[in-house]
Amino acid sequence: MVFHANPSIVRFAVLVAAFVAVTAAGHAAPVVDVVHVNGVIGPATARYVLRALDRAEYHRVQALVLEMDTPGGLTKSMDDISEGLLNSPVPSVAYVYPSGARAASAGVFIMYAAGLAAMAPTTHLGAAHPVSIATTGTGSMDKTEMTKATNDAVAEIRSFALRHGRNGVWAERAVRQSVSITSEEALRLHVIDLIATGPSDLLAKLDGRLVRTATGTVRLQTRNAHLIDVAMDLTEEFLRLLSDPNVGFVLMTIAIYGIIFELSNPGLIFPGVIGVFALLLALASFAIIEVNAAGVIFIVFAIALFIADIKVPSHGILTAGGITSFVLGSLLLTSNQAPFLRVSIALIIGVAVMTAAFFLFAVGAGVRAQGRRVETGREALVGAIGVVRRELAPEGTVFVQGELWSAASSSGMIPAGARVRVVAINGLHLKVRAVDESL
Fold this sequence. Notes:
Blueprint: H1 7-26, E1 31-38, H2 43-59, E2 63-69, H3 75-86, E3 92-96, E4 102-104, H4 106-113, E5 116-119, E6 124-126, H5 143-164, H6 168-176, E7 180-182, H7 183-188, E8 194-195, H8 199-206, E9 210-213, E10 216-219, E11 226-229, H9 234-242, H10 245-264, H11 270-289, H12 293-311, H13 317-333, H14 345-371, E12 385-390, E13 395-400, E14 403-409, E15 419-426, E16 429-434
Parallel strand pairs: 1-2, 1-11, 2-3, 3-5, 4-6, 5-8, 14-16
Antiparallel strand pairs: 6-7, 9-10, 12-13, 12-15, 13-14, 15-16
């Protein structure tokens, strides 16, 4: 039995289905992207946040939340993030989270650049005074340069405060006097817009708020929004690893060992390849964190002394000089940076002790080898015991170590069958004494 559908009914059903689909799409839960700004802010963090902003714009999400727990970071990376936040059409929310977290130094500027600022209870914010960056040969700013940098930072953060209607006076104090405040004080002083106990509470309190973006003011609809974590990609993870000064220092140490092993054992190839590869990565790391040139020079000088000690027997003097130069260079390498951008003192001492032990062992082994009696070759015959086969008067033949040798007595005639000791070698001729005579 065949049924024929009424065309009018079919058209009506299609229209109803389309209406339901559009309605469902219109009422789909909004989306909020989340990025995690943890640790030192460097090129990897900047690339990560800017990529997340582009992604958020493409997917038209309600907002991008920056969960922050940072001691600060590099000025260039901070500026890149701030500029990205200010020029994005996506509403941005900087959120210091979880409890115990902080947003210091560069983190303060990013908080002020974001469209909305929030903090979790028991968090703090502040200490945004510029840290000396290596701009001179000594790796430090003079007073005039520091004043210029401070005034520039104050102007920048006050402009952020003016744009988003936050407390510019406190922002200036954070830069000039490195003051810090708790989340409760920040809310009371209108440094931030709200306190939220967690992501869910944050979304509920963001709902309905107006946020200024690069394309105008947007009202957020976040009450039932889905949070989507945007993770770092492999390139960003790799850049973040290189941004750690301790990683750069370890890479430099590996490079030193690899190059020294290759020069002391030409033809091994593998240590040389590893050393050069580690050196290139170390230089990339040092370029990211802007190390002190004087520290690099001291480390290069230390490498030269280590190599010289392999080629020239100095009884440890060159090694001692190399260790001293290595430690000084390591200490100077990041001395101009903020504490969280410096190489660990414990790591420097550990590597220096390990290097000293290695070279002292190598030098000691060389000295001991020079003092050993020769055990192979013709030189090993000196001191060997033999038997006279043909009377030495003063020349004749002796049997030593399984071979017959032409020999000459150094002390008169020695009869056949007598035992003799080799005292010297002259070409293929031995010089011997009777075994009962002293050398």
